[in-house]
Amino acid sequence: MADSQSDADKIRNKRLAKLGSQASAQSNTGGASNGEAASQQSSTGASNQNRTPKQNELSGSKVNISKPVEKAGNSQNPFSQLGGGQSNPKINITPASSSGTSSMKGEKPISANGTTRAGDWTGEWEDKTIKAIFRLSLDHDHVQDSHGHRLHYIDGLRQELDEQGAAVRMTTGNLDQALLEVASNLGKTTPLEYLLGCWKRVSRQFRGLKPEDPRFNIVREARRLCMSYCIFAITMPDMFGLDPPDSSPLTQHLLEDPEDDRGICRDFLVEAISRFDEDDTIRSAIVEAVEELSRQLSRMTMNDNYKPYIFALRNLVQYKPIVAAIAQSPLFLPTTISAATLEAATLLGPFFAMSPLQAGVTTNYFSSPKTRDRGFIANSQNALRMTLNTHQTDLLDIVNHIVKSGEEPKGKMLDWFAMCVNANHKRRAMQVDQKTVSSDGFMINITVCLDQLCEPFMDATFSKIDRIDVNYLQRSPRIDIKEETKLNADQNASDRFYGEKADGKSNFISEVFFLTLAAHHYGGEAANSKLNQLEKDLKRMEKHIEEIELDRHKFVNDATRLKMFDEAIKRFKDKVDEGLSYKYAVQGVLLDDLSQARSMQFMRYVIVWLLRLVTPGQNFPKQPLKLPLPEQQPEVFRCLPEYFLEDVVGNFKFIMRNMPQIITSTQSDELVMLCITLLRSSEYVKNPYLKSGLVTIMFHGIWPVYNRSRGILGDLLNALPFATEHLLHALMKFYIEVENTGAHTQFYDKFNIRYEIFQIIKCIWSNTIYRERLSQEARINLDFFVRFVNLLLNDVTFVLDESLTAFVKIHKLSIELRDPSTNLEQAVRTEKEEALATAQNSAKSYMSLTNETVAMLKLFTEALAESFTMPEIVQRLADMLDYNLDAMVGPKSSDLKVENPTEYSFNPRALLAEIIDVYLNLKEKENFVFAVARDGRSYKPSNFEKAAAIMKRYVLKSPEELAAWKALGERFKKAKELDDQAEEDLGEIPDEFLDPLMYTLMEDPVILPASRQTIDRSTIRSHLLSDPNDPFNRAPLKIEDVVPDTDMLARIQAFKTEKKEQKLSKANVMDTSPD
Fold this sequence. Notes:
Strand content: under 5%
Number of strands: 7
Low-confidence stretches: 1-8, 18-119
Largest sheet: 3 strands, antiparallel
Distance between the termini: 149 Å
Shape: elongated
């Protein structure tokens, strides 16, 4: 133990010597006399009875805080001129001296009795001032000043002065001994607390003096001594007889108001920084204090008094040397750390973890959430946002100071952000274990902070867009994208591309831009996804509670089991309340106008950057964007992470759906252009659901909001030249593409996507430019348009059939369940009730689609009747119309009657009127008239008469339209007669002349190259519209590959000619027979 203590003493003395490594009085005065040097040594120590054990150990030598060397010229230390030009203090361990006086450069020598050669006034002032500043007393009866402050009686110093016969007054020469004695006998007050109060007072005194004032040097020396002892109190508390503390003594003082006597003020920090180069322990002490601040904050939430910690760090990072020191802390950037521990185990983690989304804070804002009305929730969310905005502003200030303090701290700050996003890839997993990732609040704070770091380069003219380096990801980027799905490249292609490293160094704008993109993906977008899942989970839990409550009657007679049942119910309800509180809190955070506007501005820059990538050489946005995009896709775009586009889509979908009011018209142009560009050249993006998000953005953008009947984007879609030129083709192309998405839900997904496409088309249909474009599309891209029409027809057929079938089921099941005579067993009744519920849900879903698809069919047939009466289309269209007309007005139409049809969006009269409009739109097309008449399954002249009666009774059509409908019905009858006669004239048709799929006489037979089957051209064209394979052997097939069967065509024509001649011959015979 003795050896250990001896080692400790050696270490302590070494540190003291290091602090006082400058030369003693002779060096200080640049060759002063021996008398002057001696006068600078410490006076004899205090008596043994007043000393602490540590002081007794130092009795052989004295700690003298001597004045520094004043070097000529400018110091390399940027802080050397602070504090009135005073350089750093030095500490000497000097032998005991009998002198109690001190002489300083620039100051008149003080005699042995304490008087000055110029008179006694400065000595008296020095004595009075030092006593007032340090609250000292050399008179044991004088223990309180005129302001009521306690004075510290210095018994040891008084005894020494008496023994030496010196004047009983305080000087800078005996101040060091006085400070050591007082700081070692403070009782409950710590040395640092006492000395910080002294520092405030001496600094105020110092600022009030000019260098030419003879009092200036006295106060300067007292100030220097005070700072030195403050440093001792922080770094060597054992010097004052204290046990080593568990944490830095500086920590708690950093939390105080800097203007308070216990706080750390600017003057203190400036002076401490000026001594960094001479004493590493000062730097280490500050870093240790910041680390302790971080550790303490990690155990707190926003419910606690966290703001002093934020203010403390904000104050410290204003000083570049402190930032440089903090950045060197092992806690700033740990080498190995998990996502779950980032918030507590990194130096900045606890500061960014502060959020209203912390456990306990959400329930504080939204206690008993089910009982709260909307007003309370809205007010709580506003309060939450105000608190969070203030905190995020503080975080930005901290980060800005770190970034601006130097290259190394800036690099480490960026590394910390990168570490946070790279460690949290699992936040975007399908199933997220919250214990393995960082919290939503932490990641949202990072995202918002990075958004704000981007603001300086995000001007309205995109003047700095070219500073975003396209080669950044090929240059050892900070963000990890290796495992990310790419926009249009597989893993091998991506690895090859990023394996080719780019030269050069990435600039700060590029670093922040790509970090912000990643932060949005793993931060705000992940929180949004979690919110959507949480809403579904809450609905499921509430339904589960309702189901459990139904079993209460089973336990009413068993008190023990009933208690257990109630406890289980309470646990479920508490869980729901907790989830509901969190939901309201997340909504409050995400639905913040300011942060979302900032986020949207960043996404606008991402959009422009992406458009520049896909249009090399066009210099967008300075030059207009031209479509279509090049067939050869830029490799840099193909290999981008998918989330670069997903972030944009997710962000604008959220804003369009929840807060469209923050979108301005100037921010929408680029968004619309991106949507149209990537839908028009859809091959640039592999993921169909990502492309469907572009449709959803425009769909939400045309929803009526406030005083804008066509939503945020409706007017723009009708006025922007880029949109009027390319939008319609883009929508039609994607309408075709979503027929096959590759997912197991593609059948249902396509209807949802097409519903949104229909709404957009309805919004722009009043614009004649679009209808002209549609006509042009039908003429120029005939095959493309036929595919679109075919799929539209498929959809109308399917959804109409599903809707009407569902209504028939609802009608029949409702009658059965209401009829008391059926006397159904409970199991059968339950089964039928479930079937009824299923049919009702089906009717609701499909009827909405039915209304939209029929309306779209009406619009398109009105504009392009020619396209809907092409050979490969017209018969299917006629069959579909006849079938549904029969269902609505035929003998079984009464089966469609249901209670509350509006609940299903079912208006049978309006639907009938639109179907009739389609007939009337095509009335001038002769092949359509014959196609209707040729429908042997559903065509019935009586249906047209019944439809006319309904329209007339309910005034669904004008007299002119009713007349046209009646005339059309007569034409159908005549065409039917002609068609029947033609079929009769042909008689028995050889099977080889019949189409193998439709069993009709072939008009244009062709041979399929793979199966060698002969089929009518219109039939195979119709088949290939929905299936690109040979119908007989499933081999890939294109319409260009079929070969005309000229031999078969000649034989069919010969057959028809023969039959025609037979008919004429028969007619002639009849004409020449006698009457």
